């Protein structure tokens, strides 16, 4: 998708922005207000980045585990009767804007990382669950028959056949959920979670465009690079088989 | 079991059965329990639908009865708002209803009627004043003007960006469909735009637009400025392009090759084929793209509140700043409602278009 050279360039820009923001100060100086600070200094960008990525990682991991487990249960014969209900839940849930989830979590959990984590987790469930359901539901019946034919048990079939075959589709869902989580975590700083959104919001409040551009660039680059990395991973893991239910 | 969860006073919880004199709250509680019981058997969607409606009625009834009776005992500044138990029950009943409706699969006209009926009922309920003792409603009464302005602005942002995205996206999609080279370079670029987090996108838009406004005074006169409506609008349009262009290409690709051949055989020119064969047949997929965009933009427009773009987001973020839960709700609830209504309306349109296009293909 992005050429190797471009990717390396973006990584370099990101590293400079996060690790040595002083280097870009001359470039951003015209954007800052007269005499105002050019580089965000209330917290180091590195620690904000780590806390941001940590939130996303924890929420996405938890969402992936829960969503895949639910999808496995729903695609088993005994869970089939829950399938329409599960579909209704995903359809209804997807119309919920991420910001609304965040805003509604605050009254329940107070300010801080808690509501952000909850919103990221809840919103991350849907894409993974939907894709896992599609992936596990659209496996070639001949392959499943064959697995049964060579005497594999249910658990073996799931672990050795179904999950590996559905993996690319599930990963596409994980990618979607990670990208959404990254964006929602940015807004999480309005409820006092420590994320990179803090830089952007500080810039907006003090009309210091230099802050806004710094925060925006760092978050944007993280999103693009993570997205790209996950796409590469999907390509590497997906076996070349035509006609499978890819999304 | 469900009763203990339902509490109604802000700050201090009050159990469902204690909010009003027993004689008044008993029918409402009964309705909710009966509704839950009726919702249990999955095989009878009609029963489930009835149960959901009964339960919803019971829950709102309890609110209407409970709020004034609680307020009567408390001081003048007391506020009453539904607590987690109410919201939980509300979502359970809504889910039951959605599930039952999905199983019954009513036709598009019936669905439109049901939606109109539900909205009418909601409007009647809100304007009747039965719920006006709740604190969200009091928050609304304090800023009714601002609320309607925000509604208008929110719709302008969401629908306007949809229109602009359609104007740009449809021609781009048609071009991409015809020229594979363009498709190969444009679609990845658009999906790249889509991955940029919304707050960052809004943030990057601000210096860009204020630079434009500073460089060309003409741009300033048509309202382009670093903060406010313009950056929010442009960011929303950029986000909308991928679903619109992608689905236009997919929709045009979905036209069966024999149909296309037949149209060519009848001596239709490229334009005629596009307007009379390919677009009508690809319409369901095109509309599905617009549905994604609309629902997504209604949600994203909330973030416009952070950069002075107005809309419901201004209530949400004001509420977050003042830690005023009811103000947050005043912004978040209409957003959710708007998104759901938009999703249902677009689903109906997609359905109608799909029937139409299958008839055409069959004919």
TrEMBL record, chain A:
What topology in the membrane does the UniProt record assign? Multi-pass membrane protein
**Where does the ABC transmembrane type-1 domain start and stop, copy by copy?**
49-230
Where's it found, cell-wise? Cell membrane
Report the transmembrane regions from the record: 48-74, 95-114, 160-187, 199-226
Which keywords does this Swiss-Prot/TrEMBL entry list? Answer: Membrane, Transmembrane, Transmembrane helix, Transport
Q: Name one GO cellular component term.
A: plasma membrane
Question: Could you list the residue ranges forming a coiled coil in this record?
Answer: none
The keyword Hydrolase belongs to this UniProt entry's keyword annotation? no
Family assignment? Belongs to the binding-protein-dependent transport system permease family.
For this protein, the record's PANTHER family field holds:
GLYCINE BETAINE UPTAKE SYSTEM PERMEASE PROTEIN YEHW, GLYCINE BETAINE/L-PROLINE TRANSPORT SYSTEM PERMEASE PROTEIN PROW
What protein name is recorded for this chain?
A: Osmoprotectant transport system permease protein
Report the source organism: Salipiger thiooxidans
- Highest lineage ranks of the organism? Bacteria, Pseudomonadati, Pseudomonadota, Alphaproteobacteria, Rhodobacterales
From TrEMBL, chain B:
Listed transmembrane segments: 51-72, 84-102, 114-137, 157-175, 196-216, 222-242, 281-307, 327-350
Q: Which InterPro entries match?
A: ABC_transp_perm/SBD, MetI-like, MetI-like_sf
Occurrences of domain ABC transmembrane type-1 (ranges): 151-346
Keyword Amino-acid biosynthesis attributed: no
Q: Name one GO biological process term.
A: transmembrane transport
Q: Where in the cell is it found?
A: Cell membrane
User: Which keywords appear in this protein's UniProt record, sorted alphabetically?
Assistant: Membrane, Transmembrane, Transmembrane helix, Transport
The membrane-topology field of this record reads:
Multi-pass membrane protein
Question: In the UniProt record, which is one GO cellular component term?
Answer: plasma membrane
What SUPFAM superfamilies does the record point to? MetI-like (SSF161098)
Which family, according to UniProt? Answer: Belongs to the binding-protein-dependent transport system permease family.
Task: List, alphabetically, the PANTHER family matched.
Answer: GLYCINE BETAINE UPTAKE SYSTEM PERMEASE PROTEIN YEHY (PTHR30177:SF30), GLYCINE BETAINE/L-PROLINE TRANSPORT SYSTEM PERMEASE PROTEIN PROW (PTHR30177)
Its name, as the record gives it, is Osmoprotectant transport system permease protein
């Amino acid at each position: 998708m992005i050429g190797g050279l471009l990717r390396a360039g973006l990584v370099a820009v990101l590293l400079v922005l996060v690790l040595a923001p002083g280097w870009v100060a001359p470039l951003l100086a015209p954007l800052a207000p007269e005499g105002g600070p050019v580089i965000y200094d209330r917290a180091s960008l590195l620690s904000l980045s780590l806390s941001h990525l940590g939130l996303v990682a924890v929420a996405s991991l938890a969402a992936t585990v829960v969503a895949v487990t639910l999808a496995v249960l729903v695609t088993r014969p005994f869970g089939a009767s829950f399938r329409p209900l599960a579909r209704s839940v995903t359809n209804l849930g997807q119309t919920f804007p991420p910001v609304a989830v965040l805003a509604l979590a605050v009254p329940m959990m107070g300010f801080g990382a808690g509501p952000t984590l909850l919103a990221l987790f809840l919103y991350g469930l849907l894409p993974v669950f939907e894709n896992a359901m599609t992936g596990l539901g659209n496996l070639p019946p001949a392959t499943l028959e064959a697995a049964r034919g060579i005497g594999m048990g249910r658990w073996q079939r799931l672990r050795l056949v179904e999950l590996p075959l559905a993996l690319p589709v599930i990963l596409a869902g994980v990618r979607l959920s990670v990208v959404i989580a990254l964006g929602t975590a940015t807004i999480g700083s309005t409820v006092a979670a420590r994320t990179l959104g803090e830089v952007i919001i500080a810039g907006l409040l003090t009309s210091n465009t230099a802050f806004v551009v710094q925060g925006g660039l760092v978050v944007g680059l993280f999103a693009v690079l993570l997205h790209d990395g996950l796409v590469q991973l999907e390509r590497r893991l997906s076996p070349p088989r035509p006609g499978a239910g890819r999304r | 079991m469900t009763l203990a969860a339902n509490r109604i006073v802000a700050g201090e919880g009050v159990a469902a059965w204690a909010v009003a004199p027993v004689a008044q709250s008993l029918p409402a509680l009964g309705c909710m329990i009966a509704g839950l019981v009726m919702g249990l058997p999955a095989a009878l969607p009609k029963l489930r639908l009835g149960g959901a409606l009964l339960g919803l009625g019971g829950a709102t009834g309890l609110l209407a009865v409970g709020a004034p009776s609680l307020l009567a005992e408390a001081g003048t500044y007391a506020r009453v708002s539904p607590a987690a138990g109410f919201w939980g029950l509300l979502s359970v009943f809504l889910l039951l209803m959605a599930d039952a409706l999905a199983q019954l699969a009513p036709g598009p006209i019936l669905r439109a009627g049901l939606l109109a009926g539900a909205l009418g009922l909601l409007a009647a309920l809100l304007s009747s004043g039965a719920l006006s003792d709740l604190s969200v409603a009091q928050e609304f009464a304090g800023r009714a003007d601002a609320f309607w302005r925000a509604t208008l602005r929110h719709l302008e942002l969401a629908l306007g960006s949809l229109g602009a995205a359609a104007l740009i996206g449809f021609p781009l999609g048609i071009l991409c469909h015809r020229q594979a080279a363009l498709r190969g370079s444009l679609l990845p670029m658009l999906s790249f735009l889509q991955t940029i987090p919304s707050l960052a996108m809004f943030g990057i838009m601000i210096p860009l637009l204020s630079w434009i406004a500073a460089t060309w005074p003409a741009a300033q006169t048509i309202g382009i400025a670093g903060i406010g409506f313009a950056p929010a609008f442009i960011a929303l349009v950029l986000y909308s392009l991928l679903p619109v262009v992608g689905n236009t290409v997919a929709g045009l690709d979905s036209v069966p090759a024999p149909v296309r051949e037949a149209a060519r055989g009848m001596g239709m020119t490229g334009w005629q084929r596009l307007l009379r064969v390919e677009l009508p047949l690809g319409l369901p997929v095109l509309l599905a793209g617009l549905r994604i965009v609309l629902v997504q933009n209604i949600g994203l427009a909330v973030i416009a509140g952070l950069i002075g773009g107005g809309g419901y987001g201004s209530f949400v973020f004001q509420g977050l700043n003042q830690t005023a839960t009811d103000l947050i709700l005043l912004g978040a609830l209409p957003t959710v409602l708007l998104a759901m209504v938009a999703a249902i309306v677009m689903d109906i349109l997609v359905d109608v278009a799909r029937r139409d296009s299958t008839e055409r293909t069959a004919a």
